[in-house]
Structure prediction request, 362 residues.
Amino acid sequence: MMIPPAVGLGLELRVLAEEPGMSAALAATQVGDYRDAATVLDFARGVDVVTFDHEHVPQAVLRELVEAGVRVHPGPGALAVAQDKITMRERLAELGAPVPAWARVRDAAELADFLEAHGGAAVVKTPRGGYDGKGVRVVRAADQADDWFLAVAEHGADAALLVEELVDFRRELAQSVARRPSGELRAWPLVETVQRDGVCAEVTAPAPDSEALAGPAAELAASIANGLEVTGVLAVELFETRDGRLLVNELAMRPHNTGHWTIDGAVTSQFEQHLRAVADLPLGDPAPTAPWSVMVNVLGGPADGPMPIRYPEALAARPETRFHFYGKASRPGRKVGHVTTTGGEPGETLARARAAAGFFEG
Ligand code: ADP
Prediction:
């Protein structure tokens, strides 16, 4: 999704892909392990700037790049906050951002204390490597995370899990901004996101009935982007509590699923804006181009499922819908594409997006 705007901006993309045949391989110039410093240094030779489509490049590799004089955006200091959920909670607390009550817990006894203090239910998270709800578990008894305590113990005696209060939220929201190294910053509208089984399912832009929240959410995301000196796109996942407060759930320092609607619904998409920001070019206008945009993810069904067969049918039936497929092998629950519709009324726009995505349900 970064390729079309790179072409438009006249930027040459080079991609270090993990494996041949990945969707990014369209632009791949090299296949290799992003955890190997020599591989990444070799790849970075001759490029103007390095950026990422996930947050998992090890700090040691990032530091070597910086020491070798490579421009890295977002930088290692910012990325460290997105790489570890405990570090994220600590830094957000330092910045004064509102977050759910949380603690780092090293064993079942510490988890029991947290449960007792927070009504007997909590959310336990593995600090590193989780995505799409993997590494997130609701617990109601202190022994329900024993397997994860055992797993983190392998990382040393002081290793810990993150535990948070189980937030009784009204809904989930997301606020994306982009920030240049110079500090120039632009915000897209606040969006509403619906998660199913920990996976983003639908996004509505702007978030309905969010007039009172839009300004505070944009200010919050800007203060985090500035406070952490994020360069590129920062997506801030939020909870709206039943009494109208915003709490920060998670940060992503890259174009994010909750911003895919911008490809078809904003003057400047998150992918173009990310490229502009990391290349330190003036940022584009993030304003929406339609009153409402709705994005619905398409998840893989059984292998060799119905998708290829129904594709022409869907295109024929929904000519106004924007279809995006990632060329990824279909696995149950894996995000393999998305659809976006735009319209004048939120309910009707959502219904059309769901109907278009419905062509691909297994
Ligand atoms: P991931 O890194 O896998 O995306 P998240 O931390 O974003 O994990 O959590 C995934 C989903 O789990 C969230 O979108 C939300 O629906 C739910 N969740 C996470 N933390 C909490 C919490 N403290 N209280 C209630 N629900 C939560």
Remarks:
- The CA atoms of residues 6 and 12 lie 7 Å apart.
- The first helix runs from residue 3 to 9.
- The chain has three domains: 3-82, 101-165, 169-358.
